[in-house]
Amino acid sequence: MSKKSNKSIEEKSADMVVTPWEVSGIIDYKKLVKKFGTTLLDKKEIETIQKYSKGELHLLLRRGLFFSHRDFDWILKMLEKGEKFVLYTGRGPSGHTHLGHLVPWIFTKWLQDVFDVELYFQMTDDEKFLFNQNLSFSDTRNFAFENAKDVLAVGFDPKKTHFIFDSHLTPAMYRIAAEVAKRVTFSTAKAVFGFSNDSNIGMIFYPSIQAMPCFLPSVLKGKNVPILIPAAIDQDPYWRITRDVAPKLGYYKPAAIHCKFFPGLAEGGKMSASQPDTCIFTTDTPKQAKKKIMSAYTGGRATLEEQKELGGEPDKCIVYWYEFYLFESDDEKLKQMRTDCLAGKLLCGFCKKNLAEKVHHFIGEHQERRNKISKEMIEKMIIKE
Ligand code: TRP
């Protein structure tokens, strides 16, 4: 039961900021969808996915962490017509991987399995170098390899997964980025990304690098390929400009499926490496991870008596959210947990311990797979020409 902030929920949601570089305030996802002009995922699309997944839906979809999209219905229509899509996602290697990063990758792997499709994974070691005064290229390149181990530990099919390392841009990649850059004015970039006269010119060019993988499969395969991007919704501004440019270059507009931010262990806010105590890194020992869970923010009351009398507040509880989105797939068990919490029959210590065991196990298994991945394996998957 950690300290509460003084601001009301209304005040915080009024300060909601979501850009590729900053996520703060309490996020009102309905408002965000309106503001960004994306579409909430609908039963129709979910039913179509079920046709391909033999009825099974990934928890992250079923419970709504993935909640919004652009043209996902079109991707499914193309598929029905026999035109397969390619997945594209990425990572800005500015530090070690944490649980919040793994979440969209876990879902992306599920999509790869269900639809039997290729994945292009971009490691933006240039982005993190350009945007962060404290990181050198050698830092971001090291993190890129470290993070790639986590990507592969999630279980992507190595035969169907290709890495783009931005510091290894091929001539074809550079040409695509330049084609994009030529068609985006500085005034658009300023409006979409908030660049100013203080922004370095590398930052201003960078969006065309993140747009490039949307067109690379089409260039490499010599035919137009539909692209689906699973990513957190803060990356959407990139897809907005990419989609504007696509028809000018004769390509399909990339489609996207967006997820919400995975919470950190403190009250409010996404999991962030800048708050290491409330963030579970894949490089933490299972014991450290367990300890962090034991100090998570819960929906518990101030005293035991109050908890028994009033019940807990699962909707405010980080432990409950972790179970909801990631760790308790059994709907009945989750419902029971919620009912018992509301009735004051569950105590926070019990729930934390229970989750800590699950996280301990999860991190342990992830690390076992991660330790088997060598730099050579990653090198082989980097697109080099
Ligand atoms: N900009 C992203 C980050 O900072 C990295 C990234 C590049 C990405 N391409 C992407 C993320 C495609 C999602 C989808 O993490």
Oligomer: single chain
- Mean of pLDDT: 94
Ligands in the model, by name, code or SMILES, are:
tryptophan
> What is the CA-based Rg, rounded?
21 Å
Helix content: 40-55%
CATH-scheme architecture of the domain at 18-265:
3-Layer(aba) Sandwich
Total count of strands: 9
Order of helices and strands: HEEHEHHEHEHEHHEHHHHEHEHHHHHH
CATH fold description of the domain at 18-265: Rossmann fold
State the CATH class of the domain at 18-265: Alpha Beta
Query: CATH homologous superfamily of the domain at 18-265, by name?
Result: HUPs
**Tally of DSSP helical segments:** 19
- For the biggest β-sheet, the strand order reads 3-4-9-8-5-6-7
Task: Label the overall shape.
Answer: globular
Strand share of the residues? 5-15%
Low-confidence segments? 1-12
- How far do the termini sit from each other? 53 Å
Name its key features.
10% strand; disordered N terminus; Rossmann fold; 385 residues; 9 strands; 7-stranded mixed sheet; two-stranded antiparallel ribbon
Give a verbal description of the structure.
The protein is of the alpha/beta class and 385 residues long. The protein has a domain at 18-265: HUPs (Rossmann fold, 3-Layer(aba) Sandwich), CATH 3.40.50.620. Helix content is 51%, strand content 10%. The protein has helices at 9-14, 29-36, 43-52, 59-62, 72-80, 99-115, 125-131, 137-153, 171-182, 186-193, 201-211, 216-221, 236-249, 286-294, 304-310, 318-327, 331-342, 348-370, 375-381, and strands at residues 17-18, 23-24, 39-40, 66-70, 86-91, 119-123, 161-165, 227-232, 255-259. The chain has a seven-stranded mixed β-sheet, with helices on both faces. A two-stranded antiparallel ribbon has the order 1-2. Helix 16 (318-327) crosses helix 18. It is globular. The N and C termini lie far apart (53 Å). The structure holds tryptophan. Residues 20, 88-92, 122, 124, 127, 210, 229, 231, 235 line the site of tryptophan.
